[in-house]
Structure formats: structure tokens, C-alpha cells
TrEMBL record:
PANTHER family: SLL1037 PROTEIN. Residues 1-21 form the signal peptide. Keywords: Signal. Pfam families: NMT1_3 (PF16868). The keyword Signal applies. This is TRAP transporter solute receptor, TAXI family. InterPro entries: TRAP_TAXI (IPR011852). The keyword Protein transport does not apply. It comes from the Bacteria. It comes from Deinococcus aerolatus.
Length: 325
């Protein structure tokens, strides 16, 4: 009998040891299909599963705000489960400081940056002849991006800076990347906002679709010396700059200046330092696997990784350990 109990006890200890040795589970919150977040996060999950000693998966979301909520509220050390996510820096800052409505009562103070990834270009997509400045869109039908997304936040901030109320538009939709592109192709909207890397797949496909219909894709400009760029620099110093969206990227009617923001790959402060270190290390030691699949990832480099250090959102100590080695 005692031998039976001993055997059972040893078996239980064995099972407990196996459970205790289970890999950490890392869930990467991305964005909608058709945007760079989705593809970047999917490849990141493959890299981390192979090289970081974790069981990583990527999930589709509505992007930045959803991702912040998942990272800060769903990470669970007791289950060895941690969420990471791609996040626009101004969304992260506003959530961290409680300036977004969804974080007013509970600021996202657990949010931590692992590294800057690549610049998101604010792409205000339209067709040739629709106008060259935001004011030309008054009276037209627009989409601001998916509800709760970083794109929607940026769109509203841009319109506020330009002093254009939503009442100036004949219709205001809140559609994701693919849905907005389809709506413009179908003629049910005249323009839409999108914040994403270059090239964004859904916009590239839209350009081809419009060309087949005898139309040409175009973009609204946000000039370096204009009031919108100035307002963003004042509100988010160091987080945004003005870059050129070259007409060669999508075969558009012209090159335009627009805002660009460095995305962050973020996690929770509850993530152990060694895990944050391993994730960061695996990423930067296997960048060719990322850049081979995601063109925007060419800007994910050690030299660019600390670009968000001017933000109030702190870097995770585990990531800083890697960069300071």
C-alpha cells in the first residue's frame, strides 16, 4: 500500500514538474487584416516561438487601443500568460496618462515599451481630383478607421488641429483597413484615414483596383510647415515627424508630405525581466526572418529601438538590459 502511495506521489511530483516547466504563453495583439500590424505580429509570433523559449500566437484586433487593453489587463503571471502588442505612440501616451476616455478612470500605467518598430505613415487616402488639402474633403464621405483604433485617434486629432468638425462631412464611417479600401473602391466613401507602414497591402490593392476603373489613387497632404504638423509636435514632442509619402509607393498622383509615428512593440510591467530580455534578444538576433516577410520591418533595428525614449511611457527593464549590454 505504501509503495502504491509512493508511486502516486512521485507521479504527481513529475506532473507538477512538467507543469512548472511549461513555456510562457505570449499572445501578440496585432490589427486588422490588410494592415502591417497583422503581418508584423504574425511573423513575430513565429520568431518568438522558435527562438525565445515561449509559446507565441498572434491575434487580430482593432489595433492600438484594443492592444493596450489586452496588454495591461489580460496579462496574467499566475497563468504564465503575457500579452504583447503593436501600438501607436500617441495612443500609448494618452492611455498611460489617462487622457483617453477608455482609460480615464484607470490609466494604463502597466504599459511598457520593448522597442520601437517602424514608422506609421498617416495616409489620408482618396482619388485624384478629390482635393489636395483636408479642407477639400468638407461635405464629402469619409472613414476615420476602426472604432477604438489608433487610426481613429489620429484622425480625430488631425481634424481637431485643422479645426474641421465632423459635422462638416456628409457621412462619417468607422471602418478598418480592408473595409475602408473596399468602400473607396465601391464609391461609397470619398476618402479615409489610415495609419500604417509602407506599403500597406490593402492600399496597394486599392491602387490597382482604381487603375482598372480608370481612376488614380491620391493622398491628402499634411505639410511640414502647416498647422497640423505644428499642433502634433506641440502635443507629442519627439513622437512624430513629417516625412514624404513618395508617389512610387502606390503609383499615386503625386508625392505628399505627411505625419509619421514610430510604433512600439509593447508589453506589461508584469512581464518578468528575463522574459522581456529573451523576447527582445530573439527579435534582434533574427531580424532577417522578419524583414523577409514584412517590408516595413527594415526600420526595426537596434539603432531605432530606443526612439520612443522621449515618451512618458517607460521601457521595460528587460528590454533595456539587452540594449545596454
Amino acid at each position: 500500500m505504501r509503495k502504491t502511495y509512493l508511486t502516486a506521489a512521485l507521479a504527481l511530483l513529475s506532473l507538477t514538474g512538467v507543469a512548472g516547466a511549461q513555456k510562457p504563453r505570449v499572445v501578440i495583439a496585432t490589427g486588422g487584416i490588410g494592415g502591417v500590424y497583422y503581418y508584423y505580429g504574425t511573423v513575430m509570433a513565429e520568431i518568438l516561438s522558435k527562438h525565445a523559449g515561449v509559446d507565441a500566437t498572434a491575434i487580430q484586433t482593432a489595433a492600438s487601443v484594443d492592444n493596450i487593453l489586452l496588454v495591461t489587463e489580460k496579462s496574467d503571471p499566475s497563468r504564465n500568460t503575457y500579452y504583447c502588442g503593436l501600438i501607436l505612440p500617441e495612443s500609448g501616451l494618452l492611455a498611460y496618462t489617462g487622457q483617453l476616455d477608455r482609460f480615464k478612470d484607470k490609466p494604463a500605467t502597466k504599459l511598457r515599451t520593448l522597442f520601437a518598430t517602424y514608422p506609421n505613415y498617416l495616409q489620408i487616402v482618396t482619388t485624384k481630383g478629390a482635393g489636395t488639402v483636408l479642407q477639400n474633403l468638407a461635405g464629402k464621405r469619409i472613414s476615420l478607421g476602426a472604432p477604438g483604433s489608433g487610426t481613429e485617434i489620429e484622425a480625430n486629432l488631425v481634424l481637431q488641429a485643422a479645426k474641421i468638425p465632423l459635422t462638416k462631412f456628409s457621412k462619417v464611417e468607422r471602418l478598418g483597413a480592408n473595409e475602408s479600401a473596399q468602400a473607396l473602391a465601391d464609391g461609397t466613401i470619398d476618402a479615409y484615414f489610415w495609419s500604417g507602414g509602407l506599403p500597406t497591402g490593402s492600399i496597394a490593392e486599392l491602387s490597382q483596383t482604381l487603375a482598372r476603373k480608370g481612376k488614380q489613387i491620391d493622398f491628402i497632404a499634411v505639410p511640414q510647415k502647416g498647422p497640423i504638423a505644428g499642433a502634433f509636435e506641440k502635443a507629442f514632442p519627439g513622437l512624430a515627424d513629417v516625412r514624404t509619402l513618395d508617389k512610387k509607393v502606390y503609383g499615386s498622383a503625386r508625392s505628399v508630405q505627411t505625419l509619421a509615428f514610430w510604433n512600439s512593440f509593447s508589453c506589461s510591467s508584469e512581464m518578468p525581466a528575463d522574459l522581456a530580455y529573451n523576447i527582445t534578444k530573439a527579435t534582434f538576433e533574427h531580424l532577417p526572418e522578419l524583414t523577409a516577410s514584412v517590408q516595413s520591418a527594415k526600420d526595426t533595428t537596434v539603432a531605432n529601438a530606443l526612439r520612443l525614449s522621449t515618451s512618458k511611457v517607460p521601457y521595460h527593464e528587460g528590454a533595456l538590459k539587452f540594449f545596454k549590454k
